[in-house]
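Example 520, ligand 2,5-dideoxy-2,5-imino-D-mannitol.
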Amino acid sequence: MLTYKLTRRKMLMTLGLGMTSMLLAACMPVVAPTNQHTKEGLMTQLGEQAKALRAKLANDPHRPQYHFLPPANWMNDPNGLIQWEGQYHLFYQHNPKAPYPEAIHWGHAVSEDLVHWRDLPIALAPTPDGPDKDGCWSGCAVNNDGIPTLVYTGVFPQVQCIATSADGLITWQKAPENPVIATPPPGLDVTGFRDPWVWREGDTWYAIIGSGIKGVGGTILLYRSNDLIHWEYMHPACIGNKDETGTMWECPNLFPLDGKHVLLISPVPLRKTLYLIGTYAHHKFIPESYGTVDPGGHFYAPQTMLDDRGRRLMWGWLWEGRSRDAQLAAGWAGVMSLPRELFVHSNGQLGMRPVPELKALRGDHQRVAEIDIQPDATNLLKGLGGDCLEIKATIEPGNATEFGLKVRCSPDGAEQTRVAYNRGTQQLTIDRTRSSLSLTASRDTYGGKLFLADGEPLQLHIFLDRSVLEVYANGYFCISSRIYPSRADSLGLDLFAQGGMARLGSMDVWTMHSIWDSRG
Ligand code: DQQ
């Protein structure tokens, strides 16, 4: 879905804007490590610069406080997720110079606890005249017998490259052999050729590269190698139907989970991520079922990693839901989802839950006693609210036809976002019709099917972080959205029921701490 062919000039002309001094001021410098820089000096310098950039944007009421995002400017896909000597490394698609996608770099951050992140120097920048001269696009990280190695796509044309680090993942050297895969397989008419996902079986490395066969559908092209440099094309490991699963599969991830194999794909032009659950045998993936990973309309291009506790963790890009002008004015765009642990649910769907480490962010706590939710009643949670909250609520449907919880409500209700469950359609939705009085904000309602058995309560687990809303339900389902209330007093919570009475069984609300408070 993203082929960033607009030049900066064209994009600004499209937007009717000139290069503002604000954009120039908000640049995270790309410091190429040289001999003059000691590792520690470079880290301190960049740490200070990142802190200063973050401080400049700290008062923006829409800027998330406990979701990862870069110090400023543009971010999209998570890349290169890897645990190294116990620390979690998160790389990400990044334009350090402006809040729009151009000349994409790999940003880099590290965490000890999956919650608090520290900015590290930019890992990859386009090399003039190199195979990645127009951008270092998505890819992954592997441990090649102690040598950290990034495998990524250089553009244009789309080719595969590698880079290694000799100083513990801080600075990266691109291989002189780049591009290590210079063309798509001869004889295949492809719709794209990017986003390598690499794993090892015995002594052999395997890679799938996101692609599509013109007129047929999205595909993943399988390669093998003994050294990550010389690659042999094998065959398409799975081919989709263009009318069902799109024409080009971006950012594939293929991994074993709970006795099955899971393939994640972000198909062009669907603007969402699909999971396929099936079997992987004889180097072919045979899907048995599929679904949408997060039907909230804002979650895309996720990447996963296996951590040292055996958990399959996933992060995704939560794109903005406001106009490009508003993004340029803000000076930043794109947020990372919270880390989610994946599992195959007993109902056959891909399940996800927030990692328990997030509990470390909990501040003040309030517990709400049981409440009958009369049809069309309002103001049921007076005095409760905020814009950075974790909420756990159990709601019994009673005889209501639709019921749920509202967040970011202004006292007069002019602004409010509804998390609604409709029993007729069995859909859980985030209704943004009244989320913002600002005309720059999206108003679409998105949602997905959540089957509740007769009498089964709706169990909501919500993470609200200013403009980010992640709603987990019944232990396995998640929808995420972006909201931009315009009023400073749009902080309230409320409950609602329509067509009958529902009942709040229990509710816990925590204020959440910023992840940048003490560590910058
Ligand atoms: N984003 C990257 C591509 C990928 C797309 C470019 C998905 O590698 O296909 O920034 O959002």
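Summary: The domain at 3-54+66-354 is CATH 2.115.10.20 (Tachylectin-2; Chain A).
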